[in-house]
Specification:
Length: 410
């Protein structure tokens, strides 16, 4: 349980950290890319308004947008192509770029004009399409250097974030293990106490039962002796159940799992409750898909079915039917036991039904003979077989317990 708790905390912390880093890195790169686009579009707007070239400084500086450097016209590499209404090149202006000749510029412009975008990228060149009197002009701005810087920043930010993530992941694993160590030690002490105390209690209980048997030889009809014997036996059963539950929850399980005919085991164990059900005027409906196997422990599965059937019969009213269904669904073996509950069940009851000593009946009387840890043991058995168990009550009256096991690949 402590190991699962550590894994859960670690996964939660690392998932939150990964999400945070993803948002930060993605946000920074998105803003960086947006800045590149906005700066390029601002330059293209100036070029497009002046027939594909920058205005002369001799005409004043009114054309210079705020935030644009005076060196931008000398740092920028650009070209433009004037097209007629048939998208045929009329004039190519390539004097401000070395990497593009007239034919390449004309080809780029025609390809852009065939599309519907007024702005966009053609390879590393940002373009803008504007209308003129005799046709339209396609102006291109070389953004290769800025895009290269953007890609370099993106890659660096991802690498640094991943490096930081793995460093923090190591620290999280270390500190989670350290912080949960007191809880782990306390939990281990609790389990040892239950086991040791259980063994210590067994001896006086055995002596009490033996003394009661001797006393009943002299006074066979004695209600006080009957009560003592009944309650001592009940305490002995509770002690044994607590010890079993503690052992099942151990992180190291010495039980060797083998292939078992789980269909036969469930059918035989469930069928043994027929006489008990009839004696209480109740019916059993047992549906088991044959020939299914499971990698597990035979006695544990028998114990699981005993707990679920005993619980269903015990807490269902007379005249009702207890149903058991076991079949294969895809890669899962699904076991369900359902009955009508004698008491109305709330959502809070369903949430706590697998807690130790929890009962929906708050009076907690012992008339039914249970201890309140049967379903806790059922949960431990299912978990030890790599499965999951859950409870549901659709209408507050029907009570359904469903356990799933991993199916064997045949």
């Amino acid at each position: 349980m402590i190991r699962k708790l550590r894994i859960k905390y670690t996964v939660l912390a690392l998932s939150a950290l990964f999400l945070l880093l993803t948002i930060i890195v993605a946000g920074m790169n998105l803003l960086n890319y947006r800045s590149v686009i906005e700066e390029a579009d601002e330059t293209l707007t100036v070029l497009s308004k002046n027939s594909g070239v920058f205005p002369s400084y001799e005409n004043g500086m009114e054309w210079l947008p705020s935030g644009m450097s005076r060196e931008t016209p000398f740092e920028s590499r650009y070209f433009s192509v004037l097209l007629d209404n048939e998208n045929s090149p009329i004039l190519m202006e390539t004097s401000n770029i070395y990497a593009i000749d007239g034919l390449t510029a004309a080809r780029y412009a025609v390809e852009v004009a065939k599309g519907s975008d007024e702005k966009g990228f053609k390879e590393d060149y940002r373009f803008e399409v504007t209308s003129e009197q005799i046709g339209k002009r396609v102006t291109f701005l070389d953004c290769g250097r800025k895009l290269a810087l953007f890609h370099e920043f993106r890659n660096t930010s991802i690498i640094m974030s991943l490096a930081g993530y793995f460093i923090i992941a190591v620290l999280v694993c270390f500190f989670v293990a350290r912080f949960t160590r007191p809880v782990s030690e306390s939990y281990e002490k609790q389990k040892r106490f239950i086991t040791d105390a259980g063994h210590e209690i067994k001896t006086p209980l055995t002596i009490i039962n033996a003394d009661v048997d001797i006393l009943k030889m002299d006074t066979p009809e004695n209600e006080y002796l009957d009560d003592i014997q009944k309650q001592s036996l009940r305490l002995a059963e509770l002690t044994n159940d607590l010890i079993k539950l503690s052992r099942m929850e151990e992180s190291k399980n010495d039980v060797q799992f083998i292939d078992i005919p789980i269909s036969e085991i469930i059918l035989e164990t469930a069928a043994s409750f027929q006489s008990l059900a009839r004696s209480q005027n109740k019916e059993l409906d047992i549906q088991v898909q044959p020939m299914l196997t499971l990698l597990g422990d035979k006695s544990s599965i028998e114990h699981l079915i005993t707990i679920l059937m005993d619980n269903a019969i015990k807490y269902s009213p007379e005249g009702e039917t207890v149903k058991l269904n076991f079949e294969k669904h895809g890669r899962k073996l699904v076991l369900s036991v359902s009955n009508v509950s004698s008491a109305q069940l709330s959502a809070d009851d369903i949430r706590h039904v697998f807690d130790r000593f929890y009962r929906a009946d708050q009076s907690r009387n012992s008339e039914t003979g249970g201890h309140g840890i049967g379903l806790s043991m059922a949960q431990a058995i299912v978990s030890s077989h790599g499965g999951k168990i859950g409870a549901a009550s659709p209408d507050g009256s029907a009570f359904v317990i469903t356990a799933t096991f991993p199916a064997r690949n045949i």
